[in-house]
């Protein structure tokens, strides 16, 4: 490696003064121009640098050209559709995508549905929905790129969840498929709840389905005292048929029902069965929930999903609170005036059916009984002999003789027996009416555990 030789070998040639003179017109400026010419033309460094420069700027031009063209192509050939997490179709779409067969994705996220049944058993279901990131699917022959993004900075303060969007991109000519896809997703969601009742619970400022849709509870399975079920059902049906009447008179189209009575008498069960009978869903709101505020209650009550019954459980919880300051200093619980305002404010062109329940009607302020807030009030009490008999026959069909004996013995106890207690006894003695009769004494103790 001979550096000096290499350097001298590549060194620029000396200037040819003769040539300079010949090439120029003899003036100083002419000679200078000619000199510049020689330097640039004869110098390999300049030649190489210039080449690189031209190549570089050529590439840069090509690059920006490609970017521009691809931008143009993107605009001309591709379309995208954004579904924000606020939108109803967002959850439908994720569920649909979880079940879609032609997809390739390496980012999954798990959604756990946890349901506690009336009998205390728990079932869980995991569905693997597409997680944040890119996914490719084929839908009706078209490729679609799906991008689920989480906005890390923006947080929904009330629910504590990040805002998200899903963006679908496909070829412009396939844009009509978006509509098909959304309606497929919606149909899937509707089919899943066909013949079922969807229970919504509050999730921050919005209503979200709680677990999977439940099989409808049948009305005959709830045993109330004679005539109660029929009269409520008749009243609700009449209300639902009279929308025009309310509209013409300028009356808010809503009706409030209050079911009051001891625990375990079937209030909640009846409302669920009624929803099933009417083919309605249920929005359950527990007023004793710790972080529920007046504002949130008002917002939720004014944004109920369509065809839903609003169920306010334990409304007495709002009556012992005058102010909204929690122990730790933050606001919690609903105040009495907050509840009244929310009830009065419900203004929707659709019908609003509100059911309220309480174990302590004596704690309710008379102001809640004003028509428009509560229009219909029913006492759902402990089991009457009629109900005891009906419950027995529900569990042991055809056993009339034993039924009579059981009713007689249960009445002789002279105790307040709830229908939930009866259910407990009959479930324990499944298929064995004689044993149920033998154990009738246990009904004296409401908290008896078998
Ligand atoms: N009248 C009834 N007919 C049929 N089942 C009933 C009846 N009452 C209670 N049960 C059963 O008892 C359990 C509790 O009933 P439910 O939750 O409806 O009572 P509730 O009146 O709402 O009680 P609470 O006032 O404590 O909320 C359910 O499993 C339900 O099936
Ligand atoms: Mg209840």
Automatic annotation (TrEMBL):
Chief location of this protein within or outside the cell: mitochondrion
Bias-annotated ranges (Basic and acidic residues): 16-25
Keyword ATP-binding recorded: yes
Any GO BP: mitochondrial respiratory chain complex III assembly
GO molecular function: ATP binding; ATP hydrolysis activity
Origin: domain of life: Eukaryota
A Gene Ontology cellular-component term: mitochondrial inner membrane
Biased composition (Polar residues): 1-10
Residue ranges occupied by any BCS1 N-terminal domain in the UniProt entry: 53-222
Keyword Protein biosynthesis: no
Protein family per UniProt: Belongs to the AAA ATPase family. BCS1 subfamily.
Protein's name according to its UniProt entry: LAME_0D03246g1_1
Organism, scientific name: Lachancea meyersii CBS 8951
């Amino acid at each position: 490696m001979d550096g000096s030789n290499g350097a001298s070998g590549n060194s620029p040639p000396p200037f040819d003064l003769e040539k300079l003179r010949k090439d120029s017109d003899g003036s100083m400026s002419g000679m200078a121009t000619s000199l510049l010419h020689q330097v640039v033309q004869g110098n390999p460094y300049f030649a190489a640098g210039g080449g690189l420069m031209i190549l570089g700027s050529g590439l840069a031009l090509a690059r920006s050209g490609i970017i521009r063209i691809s931008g143009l192509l993107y605009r001309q050939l591709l379309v995208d559709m954004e579904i924000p997490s606020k939108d109803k179709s967002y959850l439908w779409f994720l569920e649909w995508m979880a079940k879609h067969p032609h997809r390739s994705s390496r980012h999954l996220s798990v959604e756990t549905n946890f349901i506690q049944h009336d009998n205390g058993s728990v079932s869980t279901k995991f569905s693997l929905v597409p997680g944040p990131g890119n996914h490719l699917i084929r839908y009706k022959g078209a490729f679609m790129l799906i991008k689920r993004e989480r906005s890390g900075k923006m947080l929904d303060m009330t629910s504590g969840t990040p805002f998200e969007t899903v963006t679908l991109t496909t070829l412009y000519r396939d844009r009509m498929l978006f509509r098909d896809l959304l309606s497929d997703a919606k149909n899937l969601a509707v089919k899943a709840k066909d013949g079922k009742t969807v229970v919504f619970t509050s999730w921050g400022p919005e209503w979200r389905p709680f677990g999977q849709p439940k099989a409808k509870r049948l009305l005959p399975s709830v045993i109330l005292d004679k005539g109660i079920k029929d009269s409520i059902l008749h009243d609700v049906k009449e209300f639902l048929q009279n929308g025009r009447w309310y509209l013409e008179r300028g009356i808010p189209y809503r009706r409030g029902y209050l079911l009051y009575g001891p625990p375990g008498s079937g209030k909640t069960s009846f409302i669920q069965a009624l929803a099933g009978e009417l083919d309605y869903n249920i929005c359950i709101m527990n007023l004793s929930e710790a972080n529920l505020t007046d504002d949130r209650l008002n917002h939720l009550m004014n944004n109920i999903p369509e065809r839903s019954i609003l169920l306010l459980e334990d409304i007495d919880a709002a009556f012992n609170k005058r102010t909204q300051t929690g122990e730790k200093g933050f606001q919690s619980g609903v105040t009495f005036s907050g509840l009244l305002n929310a009830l009065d404010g419900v203004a929707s062109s659709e019908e609003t059916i509100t059911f309220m329940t309480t174990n302590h009607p004596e704690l309710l302020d008379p102001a809640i009984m004003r028509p428009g807030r509560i229009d219909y009030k029913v006492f759902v009490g402990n089991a009457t002999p009629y109900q005891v008999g009906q419950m027995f026959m529900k569990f042991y069909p055809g056993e009339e003789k034993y039924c009579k004996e059981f009713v007689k013995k249960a009445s002789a106890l002279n105790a307040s027996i709830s229908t939930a207690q009866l259910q407990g006894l009959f479930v324990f003695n499944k298929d064995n009416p004689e044993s149920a009769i033998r154990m009738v004494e246990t009904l004296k103790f409401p908290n008896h555990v078998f």
